[in-house]
Structure formats: C-alpha cells, structure tokens
Amino acid sequence: MSRLQVVSGKGGTGKTTVAAALALALATEGKRTLLIEVEGRQGIAQLFETEALPYEERKIAVAPGGGEVFALAIDPELALLDYLQMFYKLGSAGRALKKLGAIDFATTIAPGLRDVLLTGKACEAVRRKDRSGRFVYDHVVMDAPPTGRVTRFLNVNDEVAGLARIGPIHNQAQAVMRVLKSAETAVHLVTLLEEMPVQETADGIAELRAAGLPVGRVVVNMVRPHLLDAADLERVRTVAHPEVARALSAAGLGGDRRGGHAERLVDPLLAQADEYAERYTLEREQRAVLTELGLPLHELPLLAEGMDLAGLYELATELRKQGMT
C-alpha cells in the first residue's frame, strides 16, 4: 500500500469524509497516520468533532487496534517560513518578513508557490524518520483540492523544477516529484453515482495519467441501499392497480381486502416506484462507466443518520472490509 494517499473528488462528493475515513482505516493495528488538510476549510476538525487545527501535527483519534491518527492543517505562510529556514537559515529574518506582509504577498502573487509549499510539506512528512531510522508515519493521507485542479496542484513542482534549473528550489521540487510520481503515492478519486461527478472522475483520471501521476482507486460515496432489483421494477411496471390495492389492504394499509380506501395509495406508491426505477437505471449506467475505467472500485453507503464521528468509524470499517488498506 502506498505511503502517501491523495484523495480528490468533485465538490459535494464527500472527499474530505472519505479521506478522514481512510486515515482511520490505515491506522489500524498500532499504525500511525497523518491526515493533511490543504484548503483551509477546517473540514477535518469538524468531522472529528474537535477544535480548529493549528499548524502543527496533533493527535485527533485512536483507531481500532490502538493505531493513531494525527492531523495537520497546512498554513502556506508558515510553510514558507519553514522552507526559508530549512534552505536559507533566515530564522528571525523570515519572521520579520512575515510581519512586513512579504510572506502573504509572495503566496498570493504566485499561486504556484502556495501549491509547492503544500505538496512539499506533505512529502516531507512521508520521508521523515525518527532517530532509530523508522518512518514517523506509516501513512500520510492528503485531503487534496477538487478533481478539476488536482493534477495541476500535484504537478506544480515539475513546472518549478523546469523553471529553476539549479539551486535548492530545483532540488526541493525534484525531491517532491520523486515522491509524487513513485509507487509511494496513490491518487484516489471520490465520486457519486451521478453523471457529472462520474464524468469529472473520468476526466480527472485521464489528466492524472497524462501527467504521469499514479492513479489509485475510485471510491463511490453515499450509495443508496438497493430496495428493488430489475425484476421487481419490471413487475411494478406491469402490475394492475387493483392487484396493488388488494395487496395493500391485505397488509392492513387502507381498508378491507377488496381494495377500499387502499386505492388512493396506489398512484403515489407507483409514482415513487417509477422515481426509484429511474434512479436505479441511472446508477447502473454510471457504475458501468466507472467499471470501464479499469480501476479498483469501492462503494461506501449513504448513512441514514447523517455523518458524525460514529459514522466516520463505520466508513473506515467498510474500507478495511473492501481491502483498501
């Protein structure tokens, strides 16, 4: 299993939830996982029902088997200060630049620089070792930008390495790309069984492959339970109204066994069945499109009670059952 797990997806598909559940799933049996947020939304803190994350690695959860999940919300300004200290030993001079607003100016005027800092921080965490020579984290999970810009986000260091052909910036960019384009990394895409998210997933996979970035798996999120199969739906389309009314009455819904008041329930019930049939057909078509992409496919259920910390652990368990760890 790759040590850097990047999770992206169209907005609204629940990519942050999937990234958090994956971090929990990977932190089993005593393992340590770092969950990184790069968009400044504090979505991870909300999911784990904790206070806003600072720019430091903080333990936020214990996984089954005693593993630990740490989280980090990367601040581009502070990451730039780290970078300046690491390569140029600026120390107090770097802090003075921050006070003057130069750091904020630099990350605003050069958006690519911001992405370099974010990806660089994640790759540093992947490579970091303790004094005994062991990796500090078994896995790093990044809640990455949406599918529409994830390829540019991950590939920005390639552009930087080409612009700065010598020096520490060039060397740092190359080191980051060695991680991002290696077997150490896998980019997973989250989608729903709907036409637009599925199309964006297919486009995102094509872009990642064209850039030489390692595509991992597709996670279909918020999958509704199957109440009726194709045979049941065909019967709904052909069944006579009086037969449905008698069945409702026999079940004690709406009157006597001859139909009675159950008749008024038939049309709304069959209309609902038609809506379900339409959705069933759409989902089957979109699942077929995803299958043709040739990647491992995982499905997570729609949680009827909504998403909370217990639901997050439930999704993590489902990912482990499906072999995503």
Features:
325 residues; alpha/beta; 8-stranded mixed beta sheet; 13 helices; 53% helix
In short:
The protein is built from 13 helices and 8 strands.
Which percent band covers the strand fraction? 15-25%
Strand/helix succession: EHEHEEHHHHEHHEHEHHHEH
Q: Please give the share of residues in helix.
A: 40-55%
Main β-sheet: number of strands, strand sense, barrel status? 8 strands, mixed
Q: Shape from CA axes?
A: elongated
Mean pLDDT: 83
Oligomeric organization of the protein chains:
single chain
Count of extended strands: 8
| Terminus-to-terminus distance | 7 Å
Q: Count of DSSP helices?
A: 13
| Rg result | 25 Å
Structural class: alpha/beta
Q: Please, could you describe this protein's structure?
A:
With 325 residues, this protein is an alpha/beta fold. The protein is built from 13 helices and eight strands. It has an eight-stranded mixed beta sheet, with helices on both faces. Helix 9 (195-210) packs parallel to helix 12 (263-291). It is elongated. It starts with a strand and ends with a helix. The mean pLDDT is 83.
What order do the helices and strands come in, and which of them pair?
Layout: E1 4-9, H1 15-26, E2 32-37, H2 43-47, E3 58-62, E4 68-73, H3 76-88, H4 92-99, H5 102-109, H6 111-127, E5 139-143, H7 147-163, H8 167-180, E6 185-191, H9 195-210, E7 215-223, H10 230-238, H11 241-250, H12 263-291, E8 297-301, H13 309-321
Parallel strand pairs: 1-5, 1-6, 2-4, 2-5, 6-7, 7-8
Antiparallel strand pairs: 3-4
Helix pairs in contact: 1-13, 3-6, 5-6, 6-7, 6-8, 7-8, 7-9, 9-12, 10-12, 11-12
